[in-house]
Amino acid sequence: MVRLRVAATGFALLAGLLLVEPVQAITITAASSSRAHVQAAIDAAASGDTVVVPPGNSVWSTGVSIPNFKKISLRGAGMESTIRLTVGRV
Questions:
Q1: Does 41 map to a domain?
Q2: pTM assigned to the model
């Protein structure tokens, strides 16, 4: 009886794992190249996601913050398209 219960529990756990859908990474494009919009996109991202900084010119007085636990990619639209100037400390 005990073996049957353990086997049934193990089967139920295995079946539950098989039914869980894998989490898909997504790409989040910031609303603009402004620091506030890029930070908002970073905050909305989950590990594995990519945050894209769209084309545009921006002047940032501070940098953005990516928590250590959040493993994301931060990508610009290209050297000719995304221009960011940081004034002061980086």
A1: yes
A2: 0.67
Cα separation of 90 and 87, whole Å? 8
Residue 58 gets the label, from left (phi > 0), alpha (psi -120 to 50) or beta, of beta
Q: Does residue 62 sit within a domain?
A: yes
Domain extent for 60: 24-86
Specify if 10 maps to a domain: no
Give the alpha-carbon dihedral of 66, 68, 72, 77, to 10 degrees: 40
Report if residue 65 sits inside a domain: yes
User: What is the number of structural domains in the chain?
Assistant: 1
The CA distance from 85 to 64, in Å, is: 13
The answer for 56, left when phi > 0, alpha when psi is -120 to 50, beta otherwise, is: left
**CA 85 – CA 60 distance, rounded (Å):** 6
pLDDT digits (tens, 9 = 90+) for 26-80: 999 999 999 999 999 999 999 999 999 999 888 888 889 999 999 999 998 887 7
